[in-house]
Design goal:
Largest sheet: 5 strands, parallel
Order of helices and strands: HHHHHHEHEHEHEHEH
Number of helices: 11
CATH architecture of the largest domain: 3-Layer(aba) Sandwich
CATH topology of the largest domain: Rossmann fold
Oligomer: single chain
CATH superfamily of the largest domain: Response regulator
Structural class: alpha/beta
Number of strands: 5
Helix content: 55-70%
Radius of gyration: 18 Å
Length: 231
Amino acid sequence: MSIDDIVKLIDAITKLIEVIIWPGILIFVMVRFGSDLRDFFVNLSEASLKGAGFELFVKRKQAEAAAALAAAAVSNDETQVSETAVKEAKVVANLTANTVTPQLLKRAEMSSILWVNDRPQCNINERRSLEALGIYLVLATSTEEALERVQKQHFDVIISDMRRPGDAEAGYTLLDKLRAIANHTPYIIYAGARSPEQLEEARKRGAIAATSRPNELFKIVLSALERKENG
């Protein structure tokens, strides 16, 4: 795809879905998806238009979250990019269209999440998908830093990886320490491929869920925020 083609495509996309997507995410998705980008935005625009009564602001947030989720979900394996891009285009378009509503955005802008990972650059797009909704994210790179954060600030959800330097089960270590101080904030393990046994163990240990999939994480977080609001 030439530079001229990219410029023309950006203009066409903007007019099509009537939103302005973060330039950095848009360019990333373009380069990553290649020719399948058209499928991505066709699905996104169709899903967005289902909410004909939505304000432009809501459509923009749908697009921002969808673009970030798609970027997060595409495999690093170049041989799988084409197939994955088409699949994820359909998933994220429907997901954001069905979940990102004015009510959700109102709830999100009053919510905060603590994200614990010693390599925060590895999930920047997952974080952007949540920040697009107005959720306030705070980062911690260690169990100790996370504990300090929760003692100073209230969080609606905590997301943690599993393995950190010096502790192969740091996700559980943090969870145990939180529960020991009577902190029962909804806790999600976001780490590499999880077996059914590992998922069950995470729930038994007190996490509300464990996943390695960006789209699933997005849904889990929104569900947790909704349950918290409803008491």
